Amino acid sequence: MNPTIRIAAALAVAASPCAFAALPNVTLVKMYDAPTLTRDCEAGLVAVRKAVDAMAARKGPGDILGDWNRLFIQQEDIQNVPALYATLHPDKDVRAAGEDCEQKFTALATEINQNEKVYARLKAFMPANPRQAKLQRDLLKGFEDSGVSLPPDKRARAKEILGMLDDLKTAFERNVRDDPTKVIITAAEMEGLPEAYLKVRKPDAAGNYVLGFDQPSYGPFMANAKSEAARERYFRMRSNQGGAQNLALLEEMFKLRQELAALYGVPTYADFIQRRRMAGSAAAVNKFLAEIHAAVEPLEKRELEELRAEKSKERGTPLAATKVGHWDTAYYFERIRRARFNVDQEKLRAYFPSDKSVDFVLLVAEKLYGLKFKETKVPVWHPTVRHFEMYDGPSGKYMGNFYMDLFPREGKRPGAFAAPLRSASTIAKRGPSAAMVANLDPRGLNQRELETLLHEF
Question: Strand 398-405 vs strand 433-437: parallel, antiparallel, or unpaired?
Answer without folding.
Answer: parallel
